[in-house]
Amino acid sequence: MKFFYTFLIFITINLSAKAQWIAQQSGTENSLSSVFFVNENTGFSVGLNVILKTTNGGNNWVKSDVTGYWNSVSFGNSTTGYICGFSGRILKTTDTGANWFSINSGSTKNFTSINFINSQTGYVTGWFKTFLSTTDGGLSFTNHFTNEASFMFQKTFFLNDKLFLIGSEGAYFKSTNSGTGFDSISISMPNSLLAMQFFPNGTGLIFGCCGIYFRSSDFGNSWSMDTVYLTEGWALYDCSFVNESTGWTVGESGSILRTNNGGLSWDSLGSGTVNALKSVKFVNQNTGWTVGAEGTILKTTNGGGQGFPIGINSNTTEIASKFRLSQNYPNPFNPVTTIKYDLPFSNNVTLKIYGLLGNEIETLVNEKQNAGRYSVNFNASSLPSGVYYYKLTTDKFSETKKMLLVK
Predict the structure, then answer these.
(1) What is the distance in angstroms between the CA of the first residue and the CA of the last residue of the chain?
(2) Are 193 and 207 in contact (CB under 8 A)?
């Protein structure tokens, strides 16, 4: 028993020493919905009745006196920035946030995001199919959709002359003439689309509810659906890419994922929180911030640190030769680990998690699966440290293995 406790202490200290995301003091418990950094030192975060600014990489955050329900912040250059919120409100600064003043949007709709590609040209999305644009720094705005709809636009992305819009109810619109006209394209997703990224090589990614994302190789004309299984129902709210290969996405329950190959595969990164993360911004491959519920602000200076592959991959072309249940990795783990198994032929499959006393905790898989090699991630963020078991059961095979959760 003494050896076991010594082992736990060693692992805990070791994990703490290798913390990948460091919590910063925001000075508020209000939810933060957006973060933007103009360089490694100067950044902003906005949320419910709060506008925060830092000039030292987040070591200290200073709160503005301006109140409102703010949803998004964007800078077109190092000095000129914009904030949008509910009731058609837009704020502007020309002195890197030392002062903010209101500009007239011409709308009373609730705005969801603002995106400026330079100091003069920007785009605003909102409820009831609201999409506005300006080319004169907010002196005037153009309303592109006069026919209201039940859905809301969530985000915009501009690439050369292409402009993309996504929103709730699977709304996806594309323009090839900088927003003069739009085509509505079906993406076979009835729920909210929340974040996106496009690259000059034609690759596009869209993230949404339930932990799923879509990938395109032809500038968003067609999409293939990949599924990132975090836990059923977890949304991915935002993404940040520093090049065509490396990017991050964040979402519910403190989830942070990273890709190093343009979204072909993803690693899970330990965030150290279960709060929803609503926005993420990286200024280079190492330095980034994410913000979210209850005033959460996290920073990394090593790209988020060591990750490990997640998700169920059921379309592998490699057929397993026999049943096999692998040891989970990493082990010990905190709070997410990956469980892999092989099926030599089609089977009814269950994969369940049990406590030390044999009590069933969670069912990860319960379905008929084709022959192949599978991997499933298990998130134990709501469980205490200790020994747990996972059991794979099929029509012809059953095996149980032990794993150790250390927090």
Answers:
(1) 18
(2) yes
pLDDT per position as a tens digit, 392-407: 999 888 888 889 898 8
Question: How far from 172 is each of 152, 194, 238, CA to CA, in Å?
Answer: 11, 11, 16
CA-CA distance, 227 to 188, in Å (whole number)? Answer: 13
Kindly list the distances between the CA atom of residue 11 and the CA atoms of 74, 114, 170, 306, in Å, as whole numbers in the listed order: 41, 44, 44, 16
In a domain, 295, yes or no: yes
Whether residue 70 sits in one domain with residue 213: yes
For residues 73-83, one letter each, b for 16 or more C-beta atoms within 10 angstroms of the residue's C-beta and e for the rest, the string is bbbbeeebbbb
Q: How far apart are CA 401 and CA 407, in angstroms?
A: 20
Q: Are 226 and 216 in contact (CB under 8 A)?
A: no
Handedness of CA 47, 263, 216, 287 (dihedral sign): positive
Phi, psi values for residue 64, rounded to 5°:
-80, 160
Say if residue 227 is in the same domain as residue 144: yes
Three-state SS string over 123-172 comes to EEEECCCEEEEECCCCCCCEECCCCCCCCCEEEEEEECCEEEEEEHHHCE
The pLDDT of residue 19: 55
In the numeric block, the tokens 């090593």 are attached to: 302
Tell whether 16 is covered by a domain.
Answer: no
Model pLDDT, residue 240: 98
Q: Are residues 254 and 364 in the same domain?
A: no
For tokens 């590609």, the residue is 117
**3 within some domain:** no
Question: Which of these ranges, 20-29, 127-136, 164-173, 225-234, has the smallest mean pLDDT?
Answer: 225-234
Residues 194 and 276 reside in one and the same domain: yes
Region at 242 (left for phi over 0; alpha for psi -120 to 50; beta for the rest): alpha
Please calculate the CA angle 367-257-232 and round it to the nearest 5 degrees. Answer: 30
| Residue 2 resides in a domain | no
Whether residues 210 and 97 share a domain: the answer is yes
Q: Identity (one letter) of the amino acid at 327? A: Q
